[in-house]
């Protein structure tokens, strides 16, 4: 069966998409050669593709020209069959007088239009935190997704729990979103709410079996396969990618001893990179990439995060050494 004949459920089942960071230097400028070097390395990994312009890739902070450069670098260096998922949304928040909604929607539309023009395979829809707490929150969330569905690209919804910086979707909203033809799956990233993950997955399995649960739960990714995830889109996968793909493939082929062995290692990697302050995970993953020689250390900066401490660097080095993941 050709790829064109496969359903999106078939294409996404067993897939693995690292959410990749941007290689910034200490001055906040993109190191283009390091980005290309990183993309060439990823082309040799067993990843289905990558997610760019997502949170890990600071998509909402990039200019349109920076987004285009990032896209073209990845597309020209990945294998032809590796897909590119583009994050789409806006970080604009309401002004004190509630203004700015048209600008919010315009920015989200612009990202979707650019992604389609450049050749994105799938859109990852940032949760519309602009509407959090409004009386018309539910209707506005649905209308926002309907607007982006007009671009006729497959969409992965994004459930980022409010405590993790997103917006909580009620069951009623989830049902309306999942019922959309363009919605092929939903990324679950509840951070530390296992019950939310369980409840949403149970509903999808019962009511929307054709939609794919895409795990974004970096701190308990292995467990999420046990509870219904069929795909992964994780910032943790931006480094040590083959280990995490091996974990997933071991689960899907029923090699549970190997799956558990890999899961323990992946959990330990997450426990030294996805820690408080959580925004620091991006530079921590860049540091892992630099330790492996995939990118130069001078390109391992995140100008939008809290930076990385000496203690964090030491813990990462010790963890990688213990897991025998250092070159």
Would you give an account of this structure?
- The chain is built from 12 helices and 8 strands.
- An 8-stranded parallel sheet has the order 1-8-7-6-5-4-3-2.
- The relative contact order is 0.13.
- Helix 8 links the parallel strand 7 and strand 8.
- The chain is an alpha/beta fold and 327 residues long.
- The termini are far apart.
Topology record:
Layout: H1 8-12, E1 15-18, H2 32-43, E2 49-52, H3 64-77, E3 83-88, H4 101-118, E4 122-125, H5 137-149, E5 155-160, H6 171-178, E6 183-189, H7 194-207, E7 212-215, H8 221-226, E8 231-234, H9 241-252, H10 256-273, H11 281-291, H12 310-322
Helix pairs in contact: 2-3, 5-6, 9-10, 10-12, 11-12
- Helix count equals 12
Proportion of residues in β-strands: 5-15%
The spatial strand order of the largest sheet comes to: 1-8-7-6-5-4-3-2
How much is the radius of gyration in Å? 19 Å
Low-confidence stretches are none
Structural class: alpha/beta
Shape: globular
Taken in chain order, the helices and strands follow as HEHEHEHEHEHEHEHEHHHH
Distance between the termini: 39 Å
> What's the total number of strands?
8
This entry's quaternary arrangement is single chain
Largest sheet: 8 strands, parallel
Helicity level, as a percent range?
A: 40-55%
Nearest-integer average pLDDT: 96
């Amino acid at each position: 069966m050709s790829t064109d004949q496969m359903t999106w459920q078939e294409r996404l089942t067993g897939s693995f998409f690292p959410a990749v960071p941007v290689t910034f230097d200490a001055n906040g400028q993109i190191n283009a050669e390091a980005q290309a070097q990183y993309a060439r390395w990823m082309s040799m990994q067993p990843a289905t593709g990558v997610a760019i312009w997502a949170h890990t890739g600071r998509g909402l902070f990039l200019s349109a020209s920076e987004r285009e450069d990032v896209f073209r670098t990845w597309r020209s260096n990945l294998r032809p069959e590796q897909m590119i998922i583009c994050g789409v949304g806006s970080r604009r928040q309401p002004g004190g007088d509630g203004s700015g909604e048209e600008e919010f929607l315009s920015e989200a539309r612009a990202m979707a239009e650019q992604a389609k023009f450049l050749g994105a395979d799938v859109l990852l829809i940032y949760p519309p935190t602009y509407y959090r707490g409004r009386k018309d929150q539910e209707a506005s969330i649905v209308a926002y997704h309907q607007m982006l569905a007009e671009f006729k690209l497959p969409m992965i919804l994004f459930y980022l729990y409010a405590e993790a910086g997103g917006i909580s979707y009620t069951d009623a909203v989830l049902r309306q979103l999942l019922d959309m033809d363009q919605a092929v799956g939903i990324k679950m990233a509840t951070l530390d709410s296992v019950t939310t993950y369980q409840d949403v997955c149970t509903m999808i399995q019962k009511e929307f079996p054709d939609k794919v649960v895409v795990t974004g739960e970096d701190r308990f990714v292995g467990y999420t396969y046990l509870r219904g995830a069929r795909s992964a889109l994780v910032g943790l996968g931006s480094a040590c990618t083959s280990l995490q793909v091996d974990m997933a493939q071991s689960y899907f082929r029923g090699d549970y001893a190997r799956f558990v062995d890999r899961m323990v290692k992946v959990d330990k990697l997450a426990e030294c990179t996805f820690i408080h302050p959580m925004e620091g995970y991006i530079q921590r993953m860049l540091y892992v990439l630099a330790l492996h020689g995939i990118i130069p250390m001078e390109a391992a900066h995140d100008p939008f995060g809290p930076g990385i401490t000496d203690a964090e660097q030491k813990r990462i080095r010790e963890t990688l050494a213990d897991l025998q993941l250092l070159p």
